[in-house]
From TrEMBL:
Active site per the UniProt annotation: 312 (proton donor)
Family to which this protein belongs: Belongs to the glycosyl hydrolase 84 family.
PROSITE patterns: GH84
UniProt keywords, alphabetically: Calcium, Disulfide bond, Glycosidase, Hydrolase, Metal-binding
Keyword Transmembrane helix (UniProt): no
Compositionally biased spans, kind Low complexity: 30-42
Domain GH84: 197-480
InterPro entries documented for this protein: FTP1, Galactose-bd-like_sf, GH, Glycosyl_Hydrolase_84, Hex-like_dom2, HEX_bac_N, O-GlcNAcase_cat
Species classification: Bacteria, Bacillati, Actinomycetota, Actinomycetes, Kitasatosporales
The organism of origin for this protein: Streptomyces carpinensis
Region (Disordered): 30-63
Protein name per UniProt: Beta-N-acetylglucosaminidase domain-containing protein
Length: 818
């Protein structure tokens, strides 16, 4: 344990190690596989880990010392961005002066200085310096060799193209190591190339788009990760979708130009996506021209990659009657014929006729399944083979992507598919209140044989997305060499700027934000796999030896409490700290609450009733404060409580409450509404495709909701608890994706008898307890009550017809046994 390290107990150490994740304070994970015998014979340290994982990396000999003056040998074929980055890295790692010289101007008087040769791998001086290091015959490939044994230290960086040169420098920056006598570069040789041609991110979520500053930041991040693709497709940019025919205003176009220029400097393809499907008339030449005019403006701004997403639209209706005349009645086959007509025209008449453009990309309307249909049959038979087709997997958010699935998708669409992976996107109801930070998983090695690439659809929070996108970039670069746990550690170190203690805290935070939901009921990545196991182990031990269990679990809880401060102190990425701020606040509060919970249990064990009561009060107060931290709708487009380590942390607090009640002879406080009979004044009718029935608010799932028809004034919802109980609190959770403003100015009523008549009839009625709530800006709203009753009703006060939407209603009370 380092002097400044976070304390780790026996429980925590076992948990972190079991998942292949280093415990806080334990330092960096083992480096990538190296030639140990070569390293030992050279008396050198193991090679540092490099991300993305290279195809081949081994020790070449001794480390090279970074001298105060460095020669950088470049020529007219050296990539400018690679040259600028290598100068920056050298200056940050000990070089006081970097001289640019041509291959023919390396003076003998410079013997002893570190010499760095950067450019095409076939340049004679670079080829000679690379020696037997293999140069991949692949696009974006590179070879790198570090030698500290020649008369002077030398580094050769050779790319098969300009991007390869840039990526060689991205590997070099990870080979710097601090030594007692200054900076050295690890003696490595690397032969590397990407397994997948396309790698990166698609800004394709619903909700507030990223800012220009966030997009610029992400371009630089993608460059660091050797990712070559950014797709501009924010659903809530009106000029991308609703106003696709309209040109961008000058100020917005200037912002886009800045992004395009930055992307070029980072060797990232800025892919401009325009989504006309909701209103285009496929048979109208004027609409096709409006589309290509929009694309031409972006071509003039420097864009060379284009996408036409046709997702999330209907193919059961046309936007104009002329389409029915040309393509037939609405349906799968007709929709595909219309789309192919447009896409082939754009590919052949626009893309193919402009210099430097990459093949057109498209997102099909059927983007998330493996069912053969008339739509897919038409696509594979008639869509221009050059057009790249995107696919999200077997669902919108797939729990896995296997080689067999990818192979089938390629068969169905008649080409390798380009995966739009909806991770770690958090714009749908089941992700409300969450950051999705878990490392990439459940995507099979070997997918590079079946895919043209993978792009991540990240979160509304750009910088917080880096932890997951880092690991996705690692996978797409070298899927067969991907190690989930190693990549997760590397992502934490990247965010922590190499500081092990900060990276430890980041991994604690990742574990508490590990949940990755699908559109179904089961997540494809679990919440808090480390800390959740620690909590469960604690309760098992507590039943046998309370004192020992409390003592051994306390360091684990303290780790959670301390992690936010360590992250804020050690992570230099201010955008990340801003994105994660509410979750960091909640983590600290929940950790402190749990510490007081342990104190409560210790006091109960010591039969100290007054201390137990005081510690419980502190625990409950901190838990209530944590529960009131809400997401920012302006940032995420959703409402609701920030979720951290759930349900393990909140269940811990509830269990301590019940144990304290038990110590005082009270029956436990229980949630009484779950699964009970719920009714409402009317049901919203959406054709039965997704029921919004009253029971959705007592099913324990915060991502679905009940909704009344909207046709009544003062609509109501109620639950029958089955029998009367002494109630203490009622918690009302709003629908998370919208409509929070509707559930305010309402009454909560409790009665032992069924309700009848109007709202006015119930107010002040003997035997009916009521509470008037006028502030429902966020959820949950917790309403304290001392009522006794069987029926609980939520009743809007609105005197005009309106929907009543609620995600969940929880009723807590005490029921005496027997």
């Amino acid at each position: 344990m380092t002097r400044r390290g976070i304390a780790v107990g026996a429980f925590a150490m076992a948990g972190w190690m079991a998942l292949g994740v280093l415990p806080p304070g334990a330092g960096a994970q083992a480096a990538q596989r190296t030639d140990a015998r070569t390293a030992a014979s050279a008396g050198a340290r193991p090679l540092p880990p490099v991300s993305p994982t290279p195809q081949s990396i081994s020790r070449s000999g001794e480390d090279a010392t970074v001298t105060g003056r460095v020669l950088l040998v470049v020529d007219e074929h050296t990539d400018a961005a690679a040259r600028d980055r290598v100068v920056r890295e050298l200056e940050q790692h000990g070089a006081e002066r970097v001289d640019n010289v041509s291959p023919n101007d390396v003076s003998r008087a410079t013997a002893g200085l570190l010499t760095v040769r950067l450019g095409p791998a076939d340049r004679p001086d670079i080829a000679d310096a690379l020696g037997d290091t293999a140069v991949p015959n692949r696009a974006e490939g590179y070879a790198l060799r570090v030698s500290g044994t020649k008369p002077q230290p030398e580094i050769a960086l050779g790319g098969t193209d300009a991007a390869g040169q840039f990526y060689a420098v991205q590997t070099l920056r990870q080979l710097f190591q601090r030594a007692d006598d200054g900076w050295k570069v690890a003696g490595a040789q690397v032969s590397d190339y990407p397994s997948m041609p396309l790698r990166g991110a698609i800004e394709g979520f619903y909700g507030p788009p990223w800012t220009t500053a966030e997009r610029l930041d992400h371009m630089d991040f993608l460059g660091d990760m050797k990712s070559n693709t950014y797709v501009y497709a924010p659903k809530d940019d009106p000029y991308h979708r609703d106003k696709w025919r309209e040109p961008y205003p000058p100020a917005k176009l200037a912002e886009l130009r800045e992004l395009i220029d930055r992307a070029r400097a980072d060797h990232v393809r800025f892919t401009f996506a325009v989504s006309p499907g909701a209103s285009i008339c496929y048979s109208d030449p004027a609409d096709t021209k409006a589309l290509t005019d929009k694309m031409q403006a972006m071509y003039d701004a420097g864009v060379r990659s284009f996408s036409i997403p046709l997702d999330d639209i209907s193919y059961t209706r046309w936007n104009c009657s002329a389409d029915a005349e040309k393509f037939g009645a609405p349906g799968r086959g007709a929709a595909a014929r219309a789309q192919v007509s447009l896409l082939n025209t754009v590919q052949r008449e626009f893309i193919a006729k402009r210099p430097g453009t990459n093949p057109l990309q498209m997102v099909p309307t059927e983007y998330g399944d493996l069912t053969d249909t008339a739509y897919k049959q038409t696509i594979r038979a008639t869509l221009d083979p050059a057009v790249q087709v995107m696919w999200t997997g077997t669902d919108v958010v797939p729990p896995e992507i296997t080689n067999a699935q990818a192979s089938k998708a390629a068969e169905l669409f008649g080409r390798k598919v380009f995966v739009w992976d909806n991770y770690p996107v958090n714009d749908f109801a089941r992700t409300a209140g969450r950051l999705l930070l878990a490392p990439y998983d459940k995507r099979e090695p070997g997918l590079s044989d079946h895919l043209s690439g993978i792009v991540s659809n990240p979160m509304n929070q750009e910088a917080a997305s880096k932890l997951a996108v880092f690991t996705m970039s690692d996978f797409s670069w070298n899927d067969r060499g991907y190690d989930r746990d190693r990549s997760g550690r590397q992502a934490a170190l990247y965010l922590a700027a190499g500081d092990s203690r900060t990276a430890d805290a980041v991994q604690v935070f990742v574990d508490l934000n590990h949940m990755a939901p699908t559109f179904g009921s089961q997540p494809w990545q679990p919440q808090a796999p480390v800390f959740g196991a620690e909590v469960e182990r604690f309760w098992q031990e507590y039943a046998g030896d309370a004192g020992r269990a409390i003592s051994e679990f306390r360091p684990s809880v303290r780790t959670v409490t301390q992690a936010p401060a360590v992250i804020r102190d050690g992570v230099p990425d201010k955008l990340f700290l801003s994105d994660a701020s509410r979750w960091l606040d909640a983590t600290q509060l929940w950790g402190r609450s749990m510490e007081h919970g342990l104190n409560t249990l210790a006091a109960i064990d010591a039969h100290n009733a007054s201390e137990a009561a005081q510690e419980r009060k502190s625990m409950d107060s901190l838990a209530a404060a944590a529960s009131q931290i809400m997401v920012d709708p302006a940032e995420q487009g959703q409402h609701g409580q920030v979720r951290i380590g759930d349900p393990f942390i909140e269940d811990f607090v509830s269990r301590v409450d019940n144990l304290h009640d038990e110590s005082m002879g009270l029956p436990p406080l229980r949630e009484l509404a779950r699964g009970k009979t719920a009714t409402q004044v009317s049901d919203y009718d959406w054709g039965g495709a997704f029921p919004f029935s009253a029971d959705k608010s007592v099913d324990g799932d915060l991502s679905d909701f009940s909704t009344t028809s909207g046709g009544e004034a003062q609509p109501w919802w109620q639950v029958d608890l089955g029998s009367s109980a002494d109630l203490e609190k009622i918690k009302i959770y709003n629908r998370t994706d919208c409509c929070a403003e509707r559930t305010k100015d309402y009454y909560v009523l409790v009665s032992d008898q069924p309700f009848s008549g109007t709202l006015a009839d119930q107010l002040g009625k003997p035997g009916v307890w009521s509470h008037h709530e006028t502030d429902q800006a966020a959820s949950p709203t917790t309403i304290a009550t001392t009522a006794r009753g069987r029926y609980v009703r939520v009743w809007l006060a609105a005197t005009t017809p309106v929907e009543l939407n609620m995600a969940e209603v929880q009723v807590y009370g005490r029921v005496k046994e027997g």
